[in-house]
């Protein structure tokens, strides 16, 4: 009995000790490392939107959208390795007599080439264009039509103006719409017109002779001369001969008369 009581007392003591000891807290499991957020996509300028905000390029924007060349230009603008340079004609440029005449009956493919003719397939800053001197330059239309065609001539004029020279027009750069690599958009005051679509301009007519100018003598003719043949001939010579013939006749008659009188006397 005593042994059993001791065991009961020990078991009770162990139970009380277990109840009195605080439970050991388990360390929380480490949380997984957060997944990094994807890098934001680079922001690109919207070519059409820039021209619309410019306020003076509605006709050019309409051609861009109609021909879907805006999609081509935007893809080039998104390529930061090469970029694009656009020469945007103003609304007034499309109202000139030359532009309205030549652009009246273009086919769909000609419209595409015309719009592509207004862009270079790389980024050019204003400073780069100001260093140009009669630089013959390929356009987007050149590359999309087999190369060697649809060329522009870019030069920095004497008046400090960048000039873009097409086969029909000389366009002056009037303002910078946007210029930050890889996109450069410049306003021009003429529509660029290539001979690959319109042929070469007809040569200008020769100017009419001014009033009072002498009428040219027909080839092969010459004014009449007052004398012909050797000196002393002609009208004056004939007159002298007419005087000389009567004088000989008078002398002959005188001699005959003299001879008759002498015969009578003899």
Helix content: 25-40%
Report the CATH superfamily of the domain at 47-198: FAS1 domain
> What would you report as the Rg, rounded to the nearest angstrom?
53 Å
Largest sheet: 7 strands, mixed
Which percent range describes the beta-strand content? 5-15%
Say what oligomer this is.
single chain
Q: Strand sequence of the main sheet, in spatial order?
A: 2-1-7-6-5-4-3
What is the H/E string?
A: HHHHEHHEHEHEEEEHH
State the low-pLDDT regions, or none: 218-245
What is the number of beta strands? Answer: 7
Q: Write down the CATH class of the domain at 47-198.
A: Mainly Beta
Measured between the Cα atoms of the first and last residue, the distance is 239 Å
What's the average pLDDT?
79
Q: What does this protein structure show overall?
A:
- The chain crosses the membrane at residues 239-265.
- It is found in: Cell membrane.
- Residues 1-25 form the signal peptide.
- It is a lipid-anchor; GPI-anchor.
- Helix content is 40%, strand content 15%.
- The chain is of the alpha+beta class and 266 residues long.
- It has a domain at 47-198: FAS1 domain (Roll).
- It has a seven-stranded mixed sheet.
- A hairpin with a 2-residue loop joins strand 6 (170-180) and strand 7.
- It is rod-shaped, with a radius of gyration of 53 Å.
- Residues 218-245 have low confidence and may be disordered.
């Amino acid at each position: 009995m005593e042994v059993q009581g001791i065991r009961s007392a020990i078991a009770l003591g162990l139970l009380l000790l277990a109840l009195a000891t605080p439970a050991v807290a388990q360390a929380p499991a480490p949380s997984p490392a957060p997944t990094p957020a994807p890098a934001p996509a680079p922001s690109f300028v919207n070519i059409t939107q820039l021209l619309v905000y410019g306020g003076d390029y509605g006709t050019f924007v309409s051609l861009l959208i109609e021909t879907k060349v805006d999609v081509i230009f935007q893809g080039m603008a998104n390529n930061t390795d090469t970029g694009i340079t656009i020469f945007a004609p103003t609304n007034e440029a499309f109202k000139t007599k030359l532009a309205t005449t030549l652009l009246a009956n273009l086919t769909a493919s000609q419209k595409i080439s015309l719009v592509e003719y207004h862009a270079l397939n790389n980024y050019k800053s204003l400073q780069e264009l100001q260093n140009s001197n009669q630089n013959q330059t390929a356009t987007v239309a050149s590359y999309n039509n087999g190369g060697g065609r649809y060329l522009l001539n870019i030069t920095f004029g004497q008046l400090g103006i960048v000039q873009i020279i097409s086969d029909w027009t000389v366009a002056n750069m009037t303002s910078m719409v946007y210029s930050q690599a890889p996109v450069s958009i410049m306003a021009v005051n003429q529509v660029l017109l290539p001979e690959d679509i319109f042929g070469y301009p007809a040569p200008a007519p020769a100017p009419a002779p001014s009033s009072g100018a002498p009428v040219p003598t027909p080839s092969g003719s010459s004014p009449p001369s007052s004398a012909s043949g050797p000196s002393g001939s002609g009208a004056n010579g004939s007159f002298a001969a007419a005087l000389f013939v009567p004088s000989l006749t008078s002398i002959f008659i005188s001699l005959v008369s003299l001879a008759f009188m002498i015969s009578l006397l003899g």
